[in-house]
Q: What sequence folds into this?
């Protein structure tokens, strides 16, 4: 994911009646959370602003660059 991509708000989530949470990235299902993890996630995401919620969803789905990844050098 590119730097600043969270400003476009690509993530959304839906909580189902059975307690599952489905996180979507750009309209595509990225992850389903069930059980206790879903309850904890829902409490966290409801208590923060929309920018922080985007960050939480990006981290939860694993589609988040930390900025410290190194580029590999091509060797001949």
A:
């Amino acid at each position: 994911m590119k730097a600043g991509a969270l400003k476009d708000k690509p993530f959304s989530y839906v909580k189902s009646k059975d307690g599952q949470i489905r996180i979507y990235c750009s309209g595509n299902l990225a992850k389903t959370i069930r059980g206790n993890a879903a309850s904890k996630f829902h409490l966290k995401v409801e208590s923060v602003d929309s920018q922080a919620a985007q960050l939480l969803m990006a981290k939860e789905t694993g589609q988040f660059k930390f900025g410290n990844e190194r580029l590999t050098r091509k060797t001949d």
User: Anything to note?
Assistant: The chain has two helices and three strands. The mean pLDDT is 83.
